[in-house]
Design brief:
The structure holds two protein chains of two kinds.
Chain A lengths: L4 E10 L8 H19 L2 E4 L4 E5 L2 E10 L4 E9 L8 H18 L2 E6 L2 E11 L3 E3 L4 E4 L6 E4 H10 L3 H4 L6 E6 L8 H11 L2 E7 L4 H6 L7 E7 L1 H17 L4 E5 H7 L3 H14 L6 E2 L10 E10 L2 E10 L9 E5 L4 E3 L3 E4 L1 H14 L5 E7 L2 E2 L1 H13 L2 E10 L9 H4 L5 E7 L3 E4 L14 E7 L7 H12 L15 H12 L8 E4 L5
Parallel strand pairs in A: 11-12, 11-13, 13-14, 16-21, 20-22, 21-23
Antiparallel strand pairs in A: 1-5, 1-7, 2-3, 3-4, 4-5, 6-7, 8-24, 9-10, 9-15, 16-17, 17-18, 18-27, 19-20, 23-26, 24-25, 25-26
Chain B lengths: L14 H17 L4 H13 L15 H9 L5 H22 L2 H25 L6 H11 L4 H14 L8 H8 L7 H14 L4 H19 L10 H17 L9 H11 L3 H15 L1 E2 L6 E2 L3 H16 L2 E8 L2 E9 H30 L4
Antiparallel strand pairs in B: 1-2, 3-4
């Protein structure tokens, strides 16, 4: 009996001709094919300057093509689209995914498109039971507890659900100090009372103090592992004050947590929301109550270096993040942001000169304190192959040995699948390895928002003579799931932690960065 | 899992019980889901205890300390592992000398902290030191004024390597005392003992430090007796401490003369926690058990009862005639003072208890159990 397979809306074609056809030609050919099918099936066609969709059962279907010259492959991905996808709820997303898969059923298992006298034959891909990463036996440790304990992820998740997060609360140390700052609730109010009541179970609560004196208070504040500053405000004050304050406290090593007043009044009654808040605060303080251990057999390296642009009109910065995977290293992860690395970036690509790559390598070496380390590199945008080689070489000259380099993307070839239909909230994650370098990994096994519909793209960009393996995808999955401090969202965690952190930096910091910055990683989660 | 029971209750009251407990847990750990390094320490403990080491799958590209440990259990290529260890060390020293950065120093210190225990094991088991004398002197120079515990441990190892040792400086002794942190506890346990045996003039101070460290380890690890789902680091600490204790001679018998053991008790009972232990043992040894109940009467009840009985004798004495026969000879006492007789009986029991009190207390302290 053949193993169970799960439908996807991804098609893969091998390039048989000598030259890789240009993407624009392939896209044109695919669109002609889709229009032909739409006409046959009497489906509505939407065609504009930047839009080529087919409406199927009331939902617009868009498509993307991606060339993978190193593997001599072309990918065609079909996805549901719409103007208000951000507002789609769980069932809307589910319905849309199902329609996309049904649309692909209509298209058939093979799409053969004519291209300059030759044809490009796309075959429909599927997830298989044989290609799964099961994380249920990964270990969750509780380093704050004495004696330190561990259990497997399956049991931990089961107990967390079964006890309505009591299992998590029990792991939180109770000797913390929380300093509350607020302007809106300086005279008191329901959100303040509720917040104090939540925090009081886990330590002493001080304040409220005014936001106006928070910087001065922070300057003279005794640094320790048991204190955090909590800012209670409304959304407007987040934009106005907290973003400017956060960069100050982060660069001074003081953990801060912004708490929206509406979250307190509307959602704090949910145990998962409370657990998320407490775990996030404690993790920022450097005493995480719950840690997802890196599986030993996967990690022979010291850690990951993630490189990303932090671009937002009109600022253009470059960031380097180092996070450790090896147990027992007596060092902490750190993020550095450089305003003096010159590069050009589009939505998906980064171009950087050799001179700037060398400068970046020197800065990265300084970030790692001149240590002799063996690392994996994560890139959040696609680099030219020669630039990756230059980077690896420059790092090696600075005492850093690169084991492997990956490009990660949640935007590349977005396709849907029906794995979650029968495996909702599963700890088994299907993956696809296409050719030798590319792979897709279903990192989230539950759907809340539109991005959760799609798998995570992983490409091995270095070494050039190696193939992408299951072990590579396991590493990436650990980087995604190590954000277990977002326990309520565990099943929908999708992106690797370093990528997520750079997104945070982009949202929170970009306007306020004046010069090079160095920030402990834990403060940016 | 096999249930291990100890003398009295299942408490790790004595260091040798800790070694025994650790030895009982080795197979659980080797066969369970634990990290390779923990399994290797469990395996090494089996080896030093004379049991046959088990084959453990060590990843091809495992860390050098792990491969050294594997080599020490006779399973891997030891000489190759030592070469790699030294190459890694040189690379880290070089990285520090180039950068002088605190992360590079932290890396080097961590590597040396982990390596120093392996160095001791390697010297004991394979007669092959991992660090040369120049390495150790070099670290002392790099550490400068920082790293109290590590500096003291290295200085102690250098003293052990020397031809003779009369006394040990207070800096080293206090450094060893404070080095019971995360990584150096077992090393400090071993070197404080080894130095005490070697350096006669500092023996007393070093043994006090040694016993304090042993006590700390036993207290920390006694939770492992009943703990469920213990993390890997707890077991690694358990096996490392057990190996160190075994090398000091615990398990079969401590290789210390009797007078040193007594001196230990002598020193240690001055600490508040020992005072509490002593008070409990004293109450247990000096009190009187009430027949058919679990309760005990404290010793001060005996003199109080004697005084009350003497007062009763002086005021309201009851006189009773007493008749008996001894070897066929009839004895008749017309009036026996009952209260006085009871007072004398209680006084006699009290005297007997006092006569054996010292012996009973010492016995209970040594046994580590309270009735």
């Amino acid at each position: 009996m053949s193993p169970e397979r799960y439908r996807t809306s991804l098609y893969v074609a091998s390039i048989v001709s000598e030259f890789v056809p240009p993407r624009v030609d392939v896209r044109g050919a695919v669109w002609n094919y889709l229009k032909k099918v739409a006409a046959e099936k009497e489906l509505k066609i939407i065609e504009g300057e930047k839009m080529q969709n087919i409406v199927f059962n009331g939902t617009a279907m868009g498509f993307r093509v991606k060339d993978a010259p190193r593997d001599r492959l072309y990918l065609l991905s079909i996805r549901p689209v719409g103007e208000n996808v951000r507002n789609w709820r769980k069932n809307d997303n589910r319905d849309a995914a199902k329609k996309a898969l049904d649309f692909c059923d209509t298209l058939g298992p093979i799409i053969a498109v004519g291209l300059q006298g030759e044809s490009l034959v796309f075959e429909r891909a599927s997830y298989s039971q044989d290609e799964m990463i099961d994380v249920s036996e990964w270990e969750v440790s509780c380093p704050c507890k004495r004696p330190a304990t561990k259990e497997n992820l399956r049991d931990f998740i089961r107990k967390t659900g079964g006890t309505r997060y009591e299992n998590v609360y029990q792991r939180i140390p109770e000797d913390n100090e929380f300093h509350i700052f607020t302007d809106t609730y300086i005279q008191g109010g329901d959100p303040l009372t509720q917040l104090k009541s939540v925090l009081r179970d886990y330590g002493e609560v001080f304040g409220p103090r005014s936001l106006e004196i928070s910087k001065e208070f922070g300057q003279k504040f005794r640094r320790d592992r048991k204190s955090a500053f909590i800012f209670l405000e409304n959304g407007e004050m987040l934009e106005k004050c907290y973003k400017a304050l956060k960069i100050f406290f982060d660069s001074n090593g003081i953990p801060t947590q912004y708490v929206n007043d509406a979250t307190i009044t509307d959602k704090m009654k949910y145990p998962g929301v409370k657990a998320n808040l407490l775990l996030e605060i404690l993790t920022k303080m450097g005493r995480p109550p719950v840690v997802l251990q890196a599986p030993e057999e996967m990690f022979i390296n010291d850690g990951f270096l993630c490189l990303s642009d932090i671009t937002s009109t009109p600022r253009k910065l470059f960031g380097a993040l180092f996070t450790y995977s090896k147990q027992g290293l007596n060092v902490k992860g750190e993020v550095q942001i450089y305003p003096d690395i010159e590069f050009e970036a589009t939505e998906d690509y980064i171009d950087i000169t050799e001179k700037n790559i060398d400068l970046l390598a020197k800065k990265v070496n300084a970030l790692m304190g001149g240590r002799s380390l063996k690392i994996d590199i994560l890139l959040t945008k696609s680099w030219k192959q020669e630039n990756v080689q230059r980077l690896v070489k420059a790092l090696a000259e600075n005492n850093t040995e690169t084991e492997r380099a990956y490009y990660l993307s949640s935007r590349t070839s977005q396709f849907v699948d029906d794995y979650f239909e029968s495996n909702e909230k599963s700890l088994r994650h299907p993956y696809l390895v296409l050719g030798e370098k590319m792979g897709f990994l279903r990192t989230s096994t539950d759907i809340r928002f539109y991005p959760h519909l799609f798998s995570y793209y992983v490409e091995l960009v270095w070494p050039e003579d190696e193939k992408l393996k299951r072990e590579d995808l396991e590493k990436i999955l650990w980087l995604v799931k190590k954000r277990i401090y977002r326990i309520q969202e565990f099943y929908v965690l999708k992106r690797a932690e370093p990528v997520y952190i750079f997104n945070n930096v982009r949202k929170m910091y970009i306007a306020n960065i004046k010069e090079s910055l160095s920030i402990p990683l834990r403060l940016l989660i | 899992m096999e249930k291990v029971s100890f003398q009295g209750e299942a408490e790790l009251g004595y260091p040798h019980e800790l070694v025994l407990f650790a030895s009982h847990r080795t197979m659980d750990v080797i066969q369970g889901k634990y990290r390779t390094q923990v399994k290797l320490f469990a395996n090494f403990l089996r080896k030093v205890l004379g049991e046959k080491p088990i084959k453990i799958d060590v990843p091809d590209r495992a860390d050098v300390p792990m491969r050294v440990l594997e080599g020490l259990t006779g399973r891997g290529l030891f000489s190759g592992a030592v070469e790699d260890f030294r190459a890694r060390l040189e690379k880290m020293v070089e990285a520090y000398r180039k950068s002088h950065s605190s992360p590079a120093l932290s890396d080097l210190s961590s590597f040396v902290e982990d390596g120093i225990f392996l160095h001791i094991l390697s010297k004991e088991q394979a007669r092959e030191p991992l660090f040369t004398e120049e390495d150790l002197d070099g670290f002392l120079g790099i550490l400068g004024r920082g790293g109290d515990g590590l500096r003291a441990v290295i200085a102690a190892i250098r003293l052990l390597d020397g031809k003779s040792c009369e006394s040990v400086s207070n800096d080293v002794i206090s450094g060893l005392s404070s080095s019971g942190g995360e990584r150096l506890l077992e090393v400090a346990i071993y070197v404080s003992y080894a130095l005490a045996v070697r350096c006669s003039r500092s023996k007393r101070e070093l043994l006090v430090v040694h016993y304090q460290l042993v006590r700390k380890a036993v207290e920390e690890l006694s939770v492992a007796v009943d703990g469920a789902n213990l993390a890997d680091e707890v077991f690694e600490r358990l096996f490392r401490v057990a190996i160190a204790l075994f090398m000091c001679g615990y398990l079969k018998s401590i290789r210390l003369p009797q007078e040193e053991k007594v001196r230990y008790v002598d020193e240690i009972i001055r600490t508040p926690s020992i005072e509490q232990v002593f008070a409990e043992v004293f109450d247990s040894a000096a009190g009187f058990s009430v027949p058919r109940t679990d309760s005990r009467v404290p010793i001060w009840v005996a003199p109080l009862a004697t005084v009350i009985l003497v007062l009763l004798h002086a005021t309201v004495e009851i006189q009773r005639p007493f008749e008996t026969s001894l070897f066929g000879v009839p004895i008749a006492i017309p009036a026996v003072p009952v209260f006085l007789l009871f007072a004398l009986a209680v006084l006699l029991i009290l005297l007997l208890r006092l006569l054996y009190l010292k012996k009973d207390i010492v016995k209970k302290l040594r046994r580590g159990t309270v009735d």
